[in-house]
Design brief:
alpha/beta, FAD/NAD(P)-binding domain, binds NADPH dihydro-nicotinamide-adenine-dinucleotide phosphate
Length: 492
């Protein structure tokens, strides 16, 4: 008989937690999981999934317009925003149910309420009605995710955060987005697509810090062309509510914008406080993230942590991979570490970005360090579809190649289906594909993706001064995605 009630207690039923619980249970562990909010966590409820659904909807307007060039007579579309939100809510409720059933079907005990650690082997779950349940556990997995940060200027509490944006009862006619990361550019494009007047204020010289410079400038051009008012070197100084319900947003440039809603998308913080972690001996880092080693063990030997709460790479598929490492190591006899090399990602901006590997700037910096060089292949073209529609949208494709090895170390796409295209190239890059091997691959015609295997002209070596000196922008947030290896002992 085990001395513990369960082998694994998982705190948080988001992407990482559910995966960890499910895999551990399928490996024979007795598992319990606690969730205080919703099954599926940020990604399913207020992140990737509703965002992608909204993004489809925003693009639908383009499709309707483009249809005219292809012979269809279509009436001017009108928007029923509540229908969009209701449809999204239905789909999310369905996914919540799937997540719950996945756990139940594996025999995982589900506890609704807020879990805290009483000691490194004891979790107490407090339900909404105040009742408590205590479970002892051989191992605990903390997968509590993160939470959107709020800026601190006067009136910042009047701004929406990404959790709120999916539940608006109507589409704001005028939206101000603060920030220049994934969420800010995605939401700016979505609400513009749905017909709102959108202004995006970003504090730095060019948004998407850490992405390839060409990608950033190309997207900025495309967004401006679609009517998004991009303000760089611009932040919000204060917000006040007007008598008519609108908001006065005073910008650091001195200008005042009158808008119906403001979305603050200025990053996310780990949910590690108030869980009894530190009291149980779990060390947090300066940003409040749980510190873990290469196998996700915290400074309390029985406690593990994965996903946004450890603040390494805030992406759902990464949390899933980390959770599987923990479950297989604890209950499958494995000795795995997570592999963070060449993690691809997409920004569902309008148009979207797909990216994997090094930016040109990162590759040049690395090459300079080891006395090497980099070759850049870049192509900007009008997608075939828009030769008929006349839409002035250009696709950007770019390859970053190490000259001495011919290895392709970066692929960057801005254009329709960028994420779909780059997923496959991520496999190639992980396998060490060379430019010669891409050249030897037959293209699929006519597609946009074939451009990536038919680019022959290398760009002249730059002495082009960087429009934005990225190296002066501070450490790239994406650099960690490609390079970091968190070793077993020295990172805790
Ligand atoms: P990001 O970290 O991507 O971007 C935060 C942005 O806010 C940056 O532009 C940053 O500027 C700016 N910022 C930070 N602090 C302030 C401040 N005090 N005032 C004004 N601006 C500020 O965060 P997001 O909130 O956009 O997204 C969180 C994370 O969620 C992402 O990093 C990503 O990992 C994940 N995500 C992934 C998606 C995907 O895969 N498609 C979609 C959405 C989110 P600066 O660059 O100058 O620091």
């Amino acid at each position: 008989m085990s001395a513990y009630d369960v082998d694994l207690f998982v705190i948080g039923a988001g992407s990482g937690g559910v995966r960890g619980a499910r895999v551990a249970a399928s490996l024979g562990a007795r598992v319990a999981i606690a969730e205080e909010r919703f099954f599926g966590g940020t990604c399913v409820n207020v992140g990737c999934i509703p965002k992608k659904l909204f993004s489809y909807g925003a693009h639908a307007r383009d499709d309707i317009e483009d249809a005219r060039a292809y012979g269809w007579d279509v009436a001017e579309p009108t928007l029923d925003w509540p229908r969009l939100v209701a449809g999204k809510d239905r789909e999310i409720a369905r996914l919540n149910g799937i997540y719950q059933r996945l756990l139940e079907s594996r025999g995982v005990e589900i506890l609704r309420g807020r879990a805290t650690l009483e000691d490194p082997h004891t979790v107490v779950v407090t339900a909404l009605d105040g009742s408590t349940t205590r479970r002892t556990a051989r191992h605990v997995l903390v997968a509590t995710g993160g939470t959107p940060l709020r800026p601190t200027f006067p009136g910042a509490d009047l701004a929406l955060i990404s959790d709120d944006i999916f539940y608006l009862s109507q589409r704001p006619d005028r939206l101000l987005v603060i920030g220049g990361g994934y969420i800010a550019v995605e939401m700016a494009g979505i609400f513009r697509g749905y017909g709102a007047a959108v202004t995006l204020a970003y504090r730095g010289a060019l948004f998407l810090r850490g992405f390839d410079r060409d990608v950033r400038t190309h997207l900025a051009g495309e967004m401006r062309q679609r009517g998004v008012d991009l303000r760089f070197h611009c932040d919000v100084a204060s917000l006040t509510r007007r008598a008519d319900g609108a908001l006065d947003a005073v910008l650091t440039t001195g200008e005042t914008l009158v808008v119906d809603a403001v979305l603050a998308a200025v990053g996310r913080a780990p949910n590690a406080r108030g869980l009894g972690l530190e009291e149980a001996g779990v060390a947090l880092d300066a940003r409040g993230a749980v510190r873990v080693d290469g196998r996700f063990r915290t400074s309390a030997r029985s406690v593990y942590a994965v996903g946004d709460v450890i603040d390494r790479v805030q992406l759902t598929p990464v949390a899933l991979a980390e959770a599987m490492v923990v479950a297989h190591n604890l209950f499958g006899g494995a000795q795995r570490q997570a592999d963070y090399e060449f993690i691809p990602s997409a920004v569902f901006s309008t148009p979207p970005i797909g990216t994997v590997g090094l930016t040109e700037e990162e590759a040049r910096a690395e090459a300079t360090e080891r006395g090497g060089a980099v070759d850049i292949f870049r192509s900007t073209f009008t997608p075939l579809k828009h030769t008929l529609t006349g839409r002035r949208e250009k696709t950007l494709m770019k390859l970053v190649v190490e000259r001495d090895t011919d290895r392709v170390v970066g692929v960057h796409v801005v254009g329709a289906d960028a994420g779909e295209i780059v997923q496959g190239f991520a496999v190639a890059l992980r396998l060490g594909a060379t430019k010669a091997q891409l050249d030897a691959t037959v293209g699929i015609h006519p597609t946009a993706a074939e451009e990536l295997v038919t680019m022959r002209e290398r760009c002249p070596d730059p002495d082009r001064a960087l429009e934005v000196d990225q190296l002066a922008e501070g450490p790239s947030p994406r650099r960690a995605i490609v390079h970091h290896r968190w070793e077993d002992s020295d990172d805790r």
